[in-house]
Amino acid sequence: DLHTLDLRHFYSSRCNLTGFQLVDPDKPGLKNHQDERVVAGADPLAMLSPRAKEFQRSSDAALAHDAVLSFARGLQALSRARSLEPKHGATCDPGSTPWAYGLSLATQIKAGSVTGLSGRVQFDSFGARTNISFNLVELKDVGLSRAGTWDATRGIHYRQNYSSLYQEVALSLRNKTFRPYVMLKSGSKTTASEGDRLEGFCIDLLREMALLLGFRFEIRLVRDSAYGVSNEHGEWNGLVREVMDRVS
Predict the structure, then answer these.
(1) How many C-beta atoms surround the C-beta of residue 239 within 10 A?
(2) What do you get for the CA distance between the two ends of the chain, in Å?
(3) pTM for the full predicted model
(4) What is the CB neighbour count within 10 angstroms for residue 152?
(5) Judging by beta carbons within 10 Å of its beta carbon (0-12, 13-18, 19+), is residue 75 exposed, middle or buried?
(6) Which residue from 80, 89, 224, 241 puts its CA 20 to 30 A from 97's CA?
């Protein structure tokens, strides 16, 4: 039910937020169902709870809707095969006389299938639901985006192309900057000190710590723009070399 939450505060935050979604809010069947409620007039549920709109799109509401739909279809199929006689005063109390068509109704429900708000509803011989699937969604700059699907047969199947993300990571590795932690300021002059050319979460955190603890610091980019690798002679370069030489 991630789609029922207000995630606007996390837009453009590059927050890694991933979830599974049983109910697709953009599914035509769900939209038609909501439109029918609007055309029918005031919804009694909306008067009971201010979160009624979110509940109508939730997994619980969709599963309840599909359960009633499966029951109705099973009852309809059973009524075609035999004449059903209502039993007055039927209860679920211990010792009460059960409805004569209960087992037949359960058989009809398990034998049939319906397309509900949570997808295709089918059951095995034990009454457990089969062929269920979920959408895999991820938070993007403008909201949730479908990244793939999950089902019991294939598992997770990704649809999204991550080549652009890999290119961005590779660029960050070359520049030794990581958004939003350490970034080069847009339009910064090359003549400015390296500390003044950088911004981001880690830079802000370092400055606040310096104010609280009373220390001074200097930010300097690695001269050869490398983290450090060892050559065939066992000599290191990059940041590792500067640490070994006590330069950094």
Answers:
(1) 19
(2) 48
(3) 0.53
(4) 9
(5) middle
(6) 80
Burial 117-142 (b: 16+ CB within 10 A, else e): bbbebbbeeeeeeeeebbbbbbbeee
pLDDT digits (tens, 9 = 90+) for 205-221: 888 988 888 877 777 77
Give the fold, CATH level 3, of 2-171.
Rossmann fold (3.40.50)
Average pLDDT in the chain:
75
- Exposed e or buried b for every residue in 32-71, given b needs 16+ CB within 10 A? ebeeeeeeeeeeeeeeeeeeeeebbbbbebbbebbeeebe
**How crowded is residue 30: how many other Cβ atoms within 10 Å of its Cβ?**
19
- What are the angstrom distances between the C-alpha of 243 and each of 70, 222, 240? 68, 11, 5
Strand partners, 120: 115
User: What is d(CA 214, CA 64) in angstroms, rounded to the nearest whole number?
Assistant: 60
Are the CB atoms for 18 and 150 separated by under 8 Å? Answer: no
Largest CA distance in the chain: 93
Give me the helices (H) in 112-213, please: 163-175, 201-213
The architecture of the domain spanning 183-245 is 3-Layer(aba) Sandwich (3.40)
